[in-house]
Amino acid sequence: MSVLGPIYATRYLDGAVSWGLVTSAIGIGLACGSITSLLFPPGRVGLLSCVTPIPEALLLAGMASNAPLPVLVGAAVLTGAAGTLQLIVWTSHLQEAIPAEQLSRIMATNAMIGTLLVPVAYSLAGPLADLVGVRTVLAGCAAIVVGGAAAAVCVRDVRDLNARG
Length: 165
Known about the structure:
By secondary structure, the chain is an all-alpha fold. It is 83% helix and 0% strand. The chain starts with a helix and ends in a 6-residue tail after the last helix.
């Protein structure tokens, strides 16, 4: 989304102003998700982690299908809220579930893997969009997100993972 979003906005929306609205909506969602995680800590950490990617898939699919800007803005708010909610809940769960002497190594490994994958995805997005089209890549990314969420929810130990009470 970071690489192809501005290109998409230039080609299919009104350019920078439209993309600014979408990214601002993500920011509003981030704040809402943070507040929600403080007010309503979930018990079903695994299930929450399986469903929170869905709004991002909706945003990507909306872009791929050339949905109107208000729909994209709504999906962007949900994307930001779900993403930050998942991050906060998962990080909190790790701090509860992992022994203190192992926590820093696990958190560092988790961050390193996520950080290493970002430039790989960024470097593939542009050339792939040139090859098959921006909207096709966005649709493919939506499918990957949904596929990952579906695969995770199929694992009983994942979806039944609960926060310590």
